[in-house]
């Protein structure tokens, strides 16, 4: 045999041995990550091996809670335990068409109004799965009864809740085992079925801004310890675009028009350094706001007084502050920064005279009294003092007194629609309320959720009992939310003087909200899916 052939055969043999050695090395299995059962102690810092960036972690994986379980804090604060995983599950849709909204951001708020989760983004169907944490007993079972509400925002849509639309409470007691089986890869393991809350309160229909939709998205963060901060892009429009910082302090401001804006943050016991930026036609990322102080002693106190007259069934009320930049003058409302309420949330109204709000950051605010459903309203008689919405300018760390005492009176009682919460109506709803005792007539106004006056009418005086009046305005827009507001009046020396009116948060209704699309398939695995946390450094 020629020497060249022998050399070739030797080379082939060496290559075969080398490949066999590599194959042998590749076939060495990595240790399986141990799975913990319900009730076992766990470390929340340990992640599944597929989520760990360091390859050496794969060689000695630490135990994690098994499928369907989550590592949750113990109620006594002493460590963590594996318990049934819990998530809020729902769909975000367009209120008119019912189609799912891709990329909407969803977060859960606690009973104080503070975010308790980071945001997750909806998938192409508008679906989301939002994990929430609940303190546990030693055996991993729930140790507390909690309620949440949702905060939802999306490009080209009005944030939720806002304007006329409240968020419905989501109750832990409604949690039930998830309907679908566990992943096939876990079929041979003793897997726990996770719990979910999936009901009307977890499904949200957003209102399209329509022709008013314009602008870019600004994404940024305030850092840890800033959850719930109301972040506002002030300067371009009023009401200005706003967002609520999630549990990690990240925020996404949608629909910010071009021009010079100042990004400000508002929350009790937090002073944020404003940041001026120029907005063009491209989205902005990595906007970092700096915290000046979290010391309540370095922030302002706002004090004032109110006088309740002819209260009817109401006896006590509350006071809130709304940044002037997000105040809707037509609807007479706006988002309230976390904690800027007397009494502090979630306490029931208890103000009957003087009031005080502490830890107030600097800024310009509207002061709203009797804003909540407490059977009282700010007196609508514009001919006397103390009946206007007052605006104050708060300087950093300075005590600020509201100049005039507010006058508060008993409210007209709404019968329907929307006595307690938004109500679905037909094309021509009939508005009903309890007759005032001394009126000579009523002014009825219908607003849409964007603050536009849809219809106005003068209603004759009632004869006691219930007053009703049918809608006779333009056709109601499908999926739009509306509110009817009634003000009673009488003549005093030939001058019309208002007596009372319906409460600020009642009388909300919707017509023709689109039904969610029944069948929808999101992209397959490997593409973006519901429940993936959005990054504070990525543009939308």
Outline the structure in words:
- The chain is mainly beta and 540 residues long.
- It is 5% helix and 37% strand.
- The chain contains two helices and 42 strands.
- Strands 16, 17, 19, 20, 21 and 23 form a six-stranded antiparallel sheet that branches. Strands 34, 36, 37, 39, 40 and 41 form a six-stranded mixed sheet that branches. Strands 6, 9, 12, 13 and 14 form a five-stranded mixed sheet that branches.
- 41% of the residues are buried.
- Mean pLDDT is 89; it is low at 528-540.
Largest sheet: 6 strands, antiparallel
Low-confidence stretches: 528-540
Tell me the structural class.
mainly beta
Our measurement of the CA-to-CA distance between the termini, rounded to an integer number of angstroms, reads 69 Å
By DSSP, the count of extended strands is 42
Shape: globular
Indicate the mean pLDDT. Answer: 89
Approximately how much helix is present in the residues?
under 10%
- Count up the helices: 2
Whole-angstrom Rg: 29 Å
Taken as a percent bin, the fraction of beta residues is 35-45%
Q: Which tags fit this structure?
A:
2 helices; 540 residues; six-stranded antiparallel β-sheet; six-stranded mixed β-sheet; mainly beta; globular; 5% helix
Blueprint (SSEs and pairs):
Elements: H1 3-26, E1 35-36, E2 41-42, H2 56-59, E3 64-65, E4 69-73, E5 80-84, E6 86-94, E7 105-109, E8 120-121, E9 127-131, E10 147-153, E11 170-171, E12 176-177, E13 195-197, E14 204-206, E15 216-221, E16 230-234, E17 242-244, E18 250-256, E19 259-267, E20 270-272, E21 275-279, E22 284-288, E23 291-293, E24 300-309, E25 319-323, E26 341-342, E27 354-360, E28 363-369, E29 376-378, E30 390-394, E31 400-401, E32 406-410, E33 414-416, E34 423-424, E35 430-434, E36 441-448, E37 453-460, E38 466-470, E39 481-492, E40 495-501, E41 508-510, E42 532-533
Parallel strand pairs: 1-3, 6-13, 6-14, 15-22, 24-31, 24-32, 34-41
Antiparallel strand pairs: 2-5, 4-5, 6-9, 7-8, 7-10, 8-42, 10-11, 12-13, 15-18, 16-17, 16-19, 19-20, 19-21, 20-23, 24-27, 25-26, 25-28, 28-30, 29-32, 33-35, 35-38, 36-37, 36-39, 39-40, 39-41
